[in-house]
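Schema walk-through. Below, the input block comes first and the output block second. Nothing else is stored per chain. Lengths vary across the set, and this one has 441 residues.
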Amino acid sequence: MSHEYPAELEILPLAKIPSATVTVPGSKSITNRALVLAALASRDEACTLNGALRSEDTEVMIDCLRKLGFRVEADWNQFRVTVHPNETDRIIPAKKADLFVANSGTTMRFLAAMVSAGDGEYRLDGVPRMRERPIQDLLDALRQLGVDARSETKNGCPPIRIRTSGLKGGEVRVRADVSSQFLSGLMMASAYADNDVTIRVEGSRVSEPYIRMTEAMMGADWLIGFSAIGPEVYTIPASPRVQGPREYPVDPDASAASYFWAAAAITGGTVAVRGFKSGDAIGSLQGDVRFVRVLEQMGCEIPYSADGLIVQGGKLHGVDVDMNDISDTVMTLGAVACFAEGPTTIRNIAHIRHKETDRIAALATELRKLGAEVEERDDGLTIHPRPLKGCAVDTYNDHRMAMSLALVGLKVPHVIIRNPGCVAKTYPEFWQDLEKLRGNL
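--- output ---
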């Protein structure tokens, strides 16, 4: 993947209220889960992912799978990825691998669990920020299943080293209050344990919709039988001969779509995103579709359309909202809140301090630069709208900070995004797609 980005990018305000229909790329969360499930299940037939996302996060996942001995072919002209059958008698073909995951949390957490089902020694590392992102809860769980899983620096963060002769099975306890990816990774790998696995979740769970996404993909698409006793206990039978689908469609990314729905709210325009339906805000596999309901609470309308999920801007007012389940859209809401009447309070999101950056602190800092008044708390923030001014904003090498802060520039002159290339992590074509709101592309 080769894109050239400037060091800084000025966002020009829209000359007219937008009325647009846009297409966003495939879901990162679904693509990376499907790649893991397809690799583990690819025994007799290939599995082709249609509509797969091409981004840094998905390309590092594919690169790591190849280093683990899986044959993965990507046809990015068609956004199609094929995982070919594993022709060895091993769950993980390679007995040893050194894996670089950049700053992809899904790749780090999913593969740490996945390689533990193999037989060998594996090292996983990433960029400096990844070395600050916690993974100890997952390592503790893997050790309960008989795996030697350790942080090399003994601080509970990568780089990590996995020495394993397979997951033994039995009962394991895991926390999911820092990242839901610990539980998701453990669930997907547990089907390939030597014996049945019972997972008991301790404490609260963050980003619940992503856990339900894993459940749905395992059960409905890869036919991995498991039973859930409430949200705390899962029993996953050992089933190493699971055969997944020959083809799997990847839905458009709801987190990516949120920026365009937010653009409609900020500008008072009308924006439809293809690939979603009005009812998706309730029953979608991706929880972030429900972001449109937050916009509706703020004063937007969600008219029915057969062409996509539409947000129509209106007079905005602040809201008080728990965003634990849709925390990837916190920064998007932060941008919208600057244009509302009255304060917006965002709660129950302490876990996003452990993302690509400390997203609570970073969002508060940059919105203050733009003129908003922001109260920061341990688990959230309150944004008081004030007259806004253009300035250069920092993105902390965080794709979601860049895309969210750019929305302010659709109405406020002289907003400059530093390091706009960080969007390549999940949405390389974002800047080109944002220009479509001008109606001249």
